[in-house]
Design a protein that fits this description.
Elements (H helix, E strand, L loop, with lengths): L3 E4 L7 E4 L1 H8 L6 H12 L4 E4 L1 H23 L3 H7 L1 H21 L1 E2 L4 H14 L3 H12 L4 E3 L12 E4 L3
Parallel strand pairs: 1-6, 2-3, 2-5, 3-4, 5-6
Helix pairs in contact: 1-2, 1-3, 3-4, 3-5, 6-7
Length: 171
């Protein structure tokens, strides 16, 4: 049986794993579902809900901020984002302000779950069983190994996984 799908406006579970797609969209007002994800994050903060994340969320949020800044400058310069990274380090440094702000927000509002050896084993099994991409599998495995089966995500690939509950605003 595939995941149970819930809307961002449904009754909230007491513990919710915030996938990086929601964390990024909640912060970045250029993201398609920014308003919905920001409202969902505010809703969680205003209640006694425990939002949890993993190192993967920190990684993906940081990468989003850095690559977005580098790509924006690359478009202005007519260069690749990697060229900007190598040759215009001040752009990277400026992006780190947003990275640190996001880090502080995550540290303030979430509990970070550990990635253990059992998470690695489970992630590879999830990849095989549900044809998940590695990072998706690691998000899910990290939560499941901590007995968290409720996720907030914009990633429809999560919906194929048995035994989990998904909060989303994606049609």
């Amino acid at each position: 049986m595939p995941a149970i799908r819930r809307d961002f406006h449904d009754v909230l579970a007491p513990i919710v794993y915030l996938d990086s797609t929601v964390a990024i969209a909640a912060e970045d007002n250029h993201e398609r579902f920014h308003a919905e994800c920001d409202a969902f994050r505010q809703r969680i903060e205003s209640r006694t809900i425990l939002p949890v994340v993993s190192d993967f969320v920190y990684n993906e949020v940081a990468f989003h901020h850095i690559k977005s800044a580098l790509a924006d400058e690359g478009r202005r310069q007519g260069k690749s984002w990697m060229w900007v990274k190598r040759n215009m380090t001040h752009i990277f440094d400026a992006a780190m302000i947003n990275v640190q702000t996001s880090r502080a927000t995550l540290e303030r509002m979430t509990l970070k779950l550990s990635i253990t050896d059992s998470v690695i084993v489970r992630a590879f099994q999830l990849m095989q069983d549900f044809h998940l991409l590695p990072t998706d599998a690691f998000h899910i495995a990290t939560a499941l190994e901590s007995n968290v089966n409720v996720f907030a995500t914009l990633d429809k690939d999560f919906l194929v996984v048995d035994g989990i509950i998904i909060y989303t605003c994606v049609p």
